[in-house]
Amino acid sequence: MTVDLRKDFVNYAKSLNAASEDKNIRTAISRAVTSYRNTVTETLERFPHTPELAEEVQEIKRQSMANLDNLLETAMASVERNKGKAFYAKDHQAALDIALGIIGKGKTVVKGKSMLGEELHLREYLEDNGNEVWETDLGEFILQLRKERPMHILSPSIHVPREQVAEVFTKFFGKVVPPDIAEEVKVVKEFLREKYFTADIGISGANVVAADTGAMVIIENEGNVRLATGAPPVHIVMVGVEKLVPTFQEAMKVAEVTWRYAQYGVPGYVNIVSGPSKTGDIEKVTTYGAHGPKEFYVIFVDNGRNEMAHEEKFSQALHCLRCGGCMYECPVFQVTAGHFGHTYMGGIGAIWTAFVSGGMEKAAPLVYSCLRCGRCVERCPMSINVPAMIGELRERVIYGKLEG
Amino acid sequence: MTVETKMPMVLDVISENIIKHGSPLALKGSEVSSWAKELDLPAKGEVLFYTGGEYQMLPFIDSLVKTITHLDQGSKVFSMMMGARNILNKTGFSPEKMYASVLAKDKDRYNSVCFKAAKVLQELGYEFCYSGKEELYSGALLYELGYLQDMEDYVKRVVEVIKKSGAKTIVCLSPHAAEVFKFVYPKMVEGFDFEIRTYVDLVWERRDKLAKLQSAESVVIHDSCRLARELGIHQELRDILVSIGADVKEAPMSREWTSCCGGPIKILFPELSHVIGERRVTELKESGSSHILTSCPYCLSALEAGRIKGDSAVVEDLIEFLYRGVKA
C-alpha cells in the first residue's frame, strides 16, 4: 500500500503561510509571549520552590504512567465508593457512546473547556444527537459562535481581537455589543448564567485525578467550571487516563506545578470534586443531590494513551501538564498559532496527534514542521524531550510505520 | 504493518544525494575541497579538520528549494519533474546545471569560510589534516529528516574516510556534524571513539593568542540551537569575543534560550522559515548591535536571508569575523 503525503504537505505549508501573514495572530501571540514570560519569571521568583517541585512531579508522572492499569482500577473503585459512576472508554467512539448514553437527547448541556472534548469533538457529537450544548469558557464560547477551532490550548480564541468578538456577539445576541472587553464579558455572563441553572448536565475535564480518593482537580480562573459542575443536576467528568496519579497529596503537587507554568500564578479557583453532592443533616441520613449535582459520572478515556504509555520512547509525552508554556517558546507556533497542530498543538501536539488524535498521516506534516530547536524542552516543567520523539516519528514516517 | 510513504520530493532528493554522492546537494568532492588548494594540508595527522561540505553548499540550498519545493506537487509539471528526477538519478545531480543562477559572490563567500577557519586555527598554532576531495558529509540531515536506517549504512563510509586520516580528534566547523559525531555515531558504529571538538572549542582554548580588534566593535551573538543546547557551548563564544576586545551585546533570548533561525525547516517550509529568520534578526538587533555573529552554517544562511532588504544589519560567521584579525 502506498500513502502519498505530498499533497498534505503542500496544503499544510499553505495554511502555515497564510497564518504567518495573519496580523491578528502575530499581534496576539507577541503580546501573549511577552506576558507569559513575564508572569512565569515573576511567579517563579515569588514561589522559588517550583522547579524542585516540578522535578518531583516528573517522578510522580513517570511512576504513574508505569503503573497506569492499577491506578485506573483504584480510581474507578474510588469513584464508585463515593457514589459516583465510573466508566472506561477504550477509544474515541466508546467515549462518545458512554457520554451520549448518560445524556440522551433533547438536553441542555453546559461544558467547561477541555482538550479531551476537542479531541473527541464532543460538542458537535452531542449537538448532532439532538442536544443543546454551550461552551462556558469565554474563549471557547467565542469559537463556538465563530465555528472555529482553538488556536491555543489555554487561550483558545487568542487570535480573535475585541472588534471581531463584538461583531460576532452583536450578530448572535441580536443587539449592539460594543468592542469593549468588559461589555463583551458581561453580555456572555448574563447569557450563560441562565444556562447554568436550566441545564440538565454539566461536563468538565480535569487537570489531575487522585486515584486513592477519586478526586478530580480542575483549575480555572473564570468561575465557569464552578458553575457548570455545581449548578446542573448531573456532572460528567471526561478525563484522559494520563491525568491519574496515586494520591491526593501528589495530585496537589501536580496541580501547583501545572498552574504555575500555565501562567495562572495563583489560580482564581481550584475545584476538587469527588462525588455527587450530599447531606446528612437530617437524622444523619445521607441524601444525594443537596445543592450540587445528584449524579456524578467519570469517563476515563484511553484512546491511544495506554499504547503510548507502553512505548518507551513516547511514554514521557504523557507527562504533559498542558500548561502551554512550550507553545509560547516555539518559533513556529509564535507565527502560526494553532495552525501548527491538529487538535493538540506545537511539537508535543504533533506527538499527541500521532498517537491519540488524528494518527500518523495527520501527524506527518506537523512532525516535519518542528524545528527540533529544543527550546520547548527548556521551558517544559516536565522536560519532555520533544525533539527526540519528533526524530523517532520522522523515522517511522520515512519507513512507512504509520500504524502502532 | 508498513506501507510505502510518498514524501515531498525535496526529501527524496536530499537523502538520495547524501547516500549516493556524499553531499546533500551532490556537490563534487573536488568542488567542496577547492578552498584548500593553496594550503597544502596533509591527509594524515592527529587532528582532522572536518568541514562536511556544509558551508560550501549554502549558496545552493536556496536554488534547490526554489526549483523543487515551490512546484505544486500534484500538478503535471510536478510529474514531469519526477521524470526529470529519474534522469538525474542516473546521471547524478548536476549542481553546475541545476544551480546556474547562484551568484558567484555568494559561492566565493561561503566557499572561503573553510579557508578562513583553517587560517585562524593555523595562526593559533594548531596543526591538522584534511581529507580533501574524499571528505564525506556527516549525514546529519539523514538523522534530522528520519532516514536513520539509511544512515546506519552511510556512516560506515564516512568512518572509513575518517579512519584513513589516522586522526584521534575531529574538529567540526558545523555544530550539526559535531552533534551527530558525538551522539549518533557511537550508537551506530562500534568503537567510534574519536574525540569530537568544535571549531569554537579550539579557538576558545587559545583565545589569548588572537589578534585584538583595532577599535571596540559592538557585536551580538546568535547562539545556534545545537551549539547552545545540545553541545552546551555559549559562554565560550562570549569569552572569545571579549578577549579580542569586542563589546558583546545580548539579545533578549540567548544562550540556552536562543531563538531558532528557522533554518531547519527551510527545505520543506521555505516561506515560514524565512519569516522566522526575519523575526530572529529583529530580536538580535534589539540587543543594540546590528553586527550579528553566529557559529553554524545554517544559522548563517538563514539569518542572512532574514535580513530585510536594505537592512543595515551585518550577518557573519564567527570564522569570518576572526579571520579579519588574521589578515590584518
From TrEMBL, chain A:
InterPro entries: 4Fe4S_Fe-S-bd, 4Fe4S_Fe_S_CS, FTHF_cligase-like_sf, Helical_ferredxn, LUD_dom, LutB/LldF, NagB/RpiA_transferase-like. It comes from the Bacteria. Keywords: 4Fe-4S, Electron transport, Iron, Iron-sulfur, Metal-binding, Repeat, Transport. Residues 362-392 form the 4Fe-4S ferredoxin-type domain. PANTHER family: LACTATE UTILIZATION PROTEIN B. This is Lactate utilization protein. It comes from Desulfosporosinus nitroreducens.
